[in-house]
Amino acid sequence: MDIRERKMKILHAIIKDYIATAEPVGSRTLAKKYNLGISPATIRNEMADLEEMGFLEQPHTSSGRVPSDKAYRIYVDQLMKVEKINKVIEETINKEYESHVGELDKIISQTSKILSNLTNYTSLALTPQLCSASIKHIQLVPLQEDKILMVIISKEGVVRNVVINIDKKINSDTLIKISNVLNELIRRSSILQFEQEVFDILNVLNEEERILLRDIIPIIKDTLSNNDGIKVYTNGITNIFNFPEFKDLEKAKEFIDLWEQKNILVQLLSSGTDDGINITIGSENKMDEVRECSLITATYQLNGRTLGTIGVIGPTRMEYSRVVGLLNHLTGQLNELVKRTLID
Amino acid sequence: MDIRERKMKILHAIIKDYIATAEPVGSRTLAKKYNLGISPATIRNEMADLEEMGFLEQPHTSSGRVPSDKAYRIYVDQLMKVEKINKVIEETINKEYESHVGELDKIISQTSKILSNLTNYTSLALTPQLCSASIKHIQLVPLQEDKILMVIISKEGVVRNVVINIDKKINSDTLIKISNVLNELIRRSSILQFEQEVFDILNVLNEEERILLRDIIPIIKDTLSNNDGIKVYTNGITNIFNFPEFKDLEKAKEFIDLWEQKNILVQLLSSGTDDGINITIGSENKMDEVRECSLITATYQLNGRTLGTIGVIGPTRMEYSRVVGLLNHLTGQLNELVKRTLID
DNA sequence: TGTTAGCACTCAATAGTTGTGAGTGCTAAT
DNA sequence: ATTAGCACTCACAACTATTGAGTGCTAACA
User: How does DSSP classify residue B26?
Assistant: First the structure.
């Protein structure tokens, strides 16, 4: 048997055991529980090596070993076998979704619930972000003499309201004209760089109206670039209390404090670069507050365009194989539901 | 000295002490700290009486006394002296508000922050609810052939979007006609009982359009009656960890779980009947989850109409006098700011 | 040379023990 | 009526074994 392979086998066993028990795992237990065919003493030697290589850590001299973030990384990339969803779970999920067809927000919120229920971790789900490519229609509504309401509607059915203050009084004819121009710009998909290329459209506007339009465009840009419109659904925050690594009140507090700032959560979930499933383990996280957590995220799509993110956060000792399996399945379902909801 | 008055004096001292220390207070400490002019033994006798009367409780035989909810009630109603805001705090508040003029949501969210910062309790703040009396304008926007977007705008500047699915295709002329009728109904403030009295308005519509209108009205009613549009801003959830009464993880968990359901929070804050300041102490709460908490709420108004609620939640051993003082001042400021924001 | 049994040592966690102090209620004296 | 004095209670903190799962090292073995 290749020496390398044996080390990996031992590492794999340690990780599995630690994920299940949260107790530092020792050589004797390991030999007893997993039929590795070698004695505790040999395992001890291998463990010492693995520790030197940075895969294991020892909380104190006379305790077992605990996997490091590096170990989880190798586990996630090479060792683990993604769990397949079983029939019962599959049906549970379908049932949970049943009552929520038709409204995107409800579907996303329900997804978050399902995630936390089935994983016992804390779940997050983001509604789609508005982006320039997805704008379908812009409507300007007069509010008061010097205030207009801009309603931006995306192809995905996301609606955003922005109140715009203006210097002068405007009448509704002007608004309609400007609305038309805006929507024409949208049709030509050049709303963000309109200045260079669309003089022909602007011809219908007089000087005053052009100025107003010029004021409105940056507001649209702003609206698209900020996260205010994204809703964050979250469930199972207090699940972290179930994990011994958070029985320290200070840590629990830090974790829960995160949840007060939507922005941080959005940033956290948006940091995964790939489409598909993204795993960030402990110290790999950019944010200090989650350096002892792992984050598994997945995206949902419509026609190949990424709309939003869902994810699960928990201790680094996370059941990666189970969560990844679940997320795989769930994004499939979600994509399907989103498609049906938004196209119908 | 009247015997009644002496008892009250002792009770007052016990409550003040317990609010400050969270420790059961005994006769000796009481005599030493507060110059009551009587000996510990006398105090003991009085305390025994007060316990019998239901104002005090004894965690165990050989410990001091703890005030009951009934005691806090009498404290809040008769004994306490509402604390006046001091200059430093006042200026802090003004500074905190400074950067947030102009947007109602920001002002409310900032209020929540101020509340939790200055009290060290958990704060809540609700944005205004939509109600029929406050609708200013309704706009129907075509989304897809069989979908329309209804934008409801209130006098307070609150905007709500509702997507409406309809059976048939509709053209934009129909939408404009119906919009006009709706807004005419609003002007006559009879949108919710339109059937009886407004036949003259309906004359402009043909049969098909009337059916559509009849479908839309209940959706408006629904939208007005449900809480979906209310935003709940909350800060300082983890402040409860500072209180010894929540060092029991189970209790902390129960408390934090509350915060996942917006509906519960809205219900909680809306339960106060009076305008002005409302105090609910421990077991007076209707909801089990907050039976060990006290809730102090206040409302903010515009032109005499209550728009929303702000409040603070914490252990029954709350610094009522300080919080009430702060809320008094804060609602004043808030009303002023709201007025400026919404009228300008 | 890799593997393993044996041994002395480490250290967190648990349970038992004891002392301390703030509290009480009761009684008798003021 | 008030209070000093006294015996009693009980949570809490500090201390002291005891236990047990773990280690590293060494020497013997295949």
Answer: -
